[in-house]
Design brief:
Elements (H helix, E strand, L loop, with lengths): L1 H29 L6 H20 L6 H17 L1 H13 L3 H19 L5 H16 L18 H8 L3 H4 L6 H13 L14 H16 L8 H21 L6 H16 L11 H9 L3 H26 L20 H15 L12 H11 L3 H27 L4 H25 L4 H29 L3 H33 L16 E6 L2 E6 L20 E2 L8 E2 L1 H5 L1
Helix pairs in contact: 1-2, 1-3, 2-7, 2-14, 5-9, 6-7, 9-10, 9-11, 10-11, 10-19, 11-12, 11-18, 11-19, 12-14, 17-18, 17-19, 18-19
Length: 573
């Protein structure tokens, strides 16, 4: 826990200062001031992730990368000391003792959960090794040829490598997921904070409730550096902030456009998050209507700066602009993963998500694989959520028809359109997830947000219906029942967290975070370089490097690892 806490302190300080610098740029260029500290930290995390990816193109992400980051942050701290002091004093001094106690307990609980728990299977399969490659070498050409999963290239791994502190501690920390979960938890806590609720609609509250449920699902797993948890937390954060801006009747296009830049960041965490960019419709319309070409250019540049380093890394690792999409073949690289192997990898991802262990069945019609997937792959709660999501589609169509029939151009009407746009976005994301690789952990945010936003809009309409008929007593009674239900639900979920803490309290992870798994490995040499592989199964963990899931032929492009790898087919030729 101690290692996690100090790691978080470093992450928080550097992300906050990077966020301060980024928000200063935003204020000077588009005239929008970001004052919410959690948003500043989130913006800083995005900036630091881009920095880590750029650095990885030229060298290992370790001591030098952190030294440059720390020096830049020191400059920001000195230059913006007055602004920083004002932001931080406002956060702490204006809060009650109860709030401070809740925050302290929250940090302690999430720190505990991040220090120990279930290490995801894929983390010992390839996450740990992917992070270590970034720690040890600059981006290696054709790295996906020795293990195709290295070509997935989530930007989360570059961020994890930057903050792993291997050069300082002798072990690779993996606490970023826990920090992201804590940031989302701070958004969730506004459910219980009167100052954090606008009271105009209940839709944002429902979205926060969905995030609360998600966090109570993953608290035992966030010790793992899996990108699935990071991307779900980011999606929740974007949608909650979007809905909150609508309730605050924000008229500026800037915050919506900035959330869309965050959507571009989400794509670099996991490519399947791409449909979150449907939200672009609102700020694009606002900016085009106001003919603000300069602002449009600034947001486009921000989006490009966010995504281009990730695209470059993907090309270096796989030979493709997007992997695993071999049909988008734009480059003639000698290290390119063979198209057949990339296509097989894509098919395996989809069929595995559908509960089918046969890549040849990737084109099976949805009505043939869906019943078995629904019956065998989902827990009881998952079945209920998916069934509810399917029902939400015709409800959304009905809500959309009613909204456009009214043609309401008031502030309330614009807010409702923005909420429906958010619902359309998560519905489209849910549909893409459902029809591609519907493993629940790949799309938990979409599954929850569809039903929660729909429920929030329906509940809000019901409240207005009774309000128009002057049945305020009924509304008050329903509100009291709703609050009571929320507290009961929260108590049940928090009791589950308490049990988890009790069950894991005996584990010796109070100083150092639980490490990656240990496995029995053997090695074989390629041009004097030992490559490790497991005696049983396919997991290798972190310590033995470089590792591959099985003994495979490896062909260097040059005389050393740094020069990259050829695809295996060239060795056979």
């Amino acid at each position: 826990m101690v290692s996690v806490l100090f790691n978080w302190l470093y992450i928080a300080v550097t992300a906050f200062l990077a966020g301060v610098a980024l928000c200063a740029f935003i204020r000077r260029t588009v005239g929008y001031r970001v004052t919410d500290v959690s948003c500043i930290v989130a913006a800083g995390l995005m900036a630091v992730t881009v920095y880590a990816q750029v650095f990885s193109l030229f060298g290992r992400v370790g001591a030098a990368a952190n030294l440059v980051l720390a020096a830049a942050c020191l400059v920001v701290a000195v230059a913006g000391r007055r602004q920083i002091a004002g932001l931080l004093s406002g956060v702490w001094e204006n809060k009650s003792t109860a709030w401070k106690l809740v925050m302290a307990l929250s940090v302690a609980a999430w720190c505990f959960c991040t220090s120990r728990g279930y290490m995801h299977y894929d983390s010992d399969l390839y996450h740990a090794q992917a992070i270590r490659w970034i720690e040890e070498y600059r981006a290696v050409k054709g790295l996906g040829n020795i293990h195709v999963r290295f070509a997935y290239n989530s930007s989360f791994f570059a961020l994890s490598a930057l903050y792993s502190m291997k050069f300082l501690t002798g072990r690779s920390l993996h606490a970023v997921n826990g920090f992201m979960a804590l940031l989302l938890w701070i958004q969730v806590l506004r459910l219980f904070d009167a100052q954090g609720r606008t009271g105009r609609t209940v839709v944002t509250g429902f979205a926060r409730l969905g995030a609360f449920y998600y966090l109570t699902v993953i608290y035992s797993d966030i010790v793992s550096p899996a990108s699935d948890y990071a991307i779900m937390c980011v999606v929740f954060f974007i949608v909650i902030r979007w809905l909150e801006l609508l309730e605050q009747e924000e008229e500026s296009a800037a915050p919506y456009a900035l959330l869309c830049v965050a959507g571009v960041y989400a794509v670099t965490l996991k490519l399947t998050a791409g449909l979150i960019l449907i939200l672009l419709a609102k700020p694009a319309y606002m900016l085009l209507r106001e003919k603000r070409q300069k602002d449009i250019g600034i947001y486009l540049v921000m989006g490009l700066v966010t995504i281009v380093p990730w695209l470059v890394r993907t090309v270096i690792l796989s030979g493709y602009l997007l992997y695993p999409f071999p049909s988008l073949d734009l480059f003639d690289m000698d290290w390119k993963i063979p198209a057949a192997e990339a296509a097989l990898d894509a098919a395996e991802i989809r069929t595995w998500g559908r509960g089918i262990n046969n890549a040849a069945l990737v084109d099976l019609p949805v009505w043939e694989w869906f019943p078995g997937w629904f019956r065998e792959s989902l827990p009881v709660v998952g079945k209920a959520l998916v069934a509810a999501d399917i029902v939400c589609l015709p409800v959304f169509i009905a809500l959309l028809a009613v909204q456009f029939r009214r043609g309401d151009m008031s502030a309330a009407g614009r807010m409702r359109k923005g909420q429906l746009l958010a619902l359309a976005t998560v519905l489209a994301s849910y549909g893409f997830w459902q029809l591609s690789a519907p493993l629940l952990r790949y799309g938990y945010a979409y599954v929850l947000l569809v039903v929660m936003i729909t429920s929030g809009i329906l509940c809000d309409n019901l409240i207005k219906y009774f309000d128009k008929r002057q049945k305020k007593d009924m509304i008050k009674k329903a509100a009291v029942l709703g609050v009571c239900a929320l507290w009961v639900f929260s108590a049940v979920k928090l009791a589950s967290l308490a049990r988890h803490i009790h069950d894991k309290s005996a584990e010796k992870a109070y100083v150092w975070q639980q490490d990656y798994g240990n496995y029995t490995l053997e090695s074989y040499e390629v041009e004097g370089v030992p490559f490790y592989y497991p005696v049983y199964g396919d997991r290798t963990g972190y310590d033995h490097f470089p590792s591959v899931p099985r003994q495979v032929p490896v062909l260097f492009r040059g005389q050393s690892v740094e020069e990259g790898f050829y695809p295996k087919k060239q060795e056979m030729e």
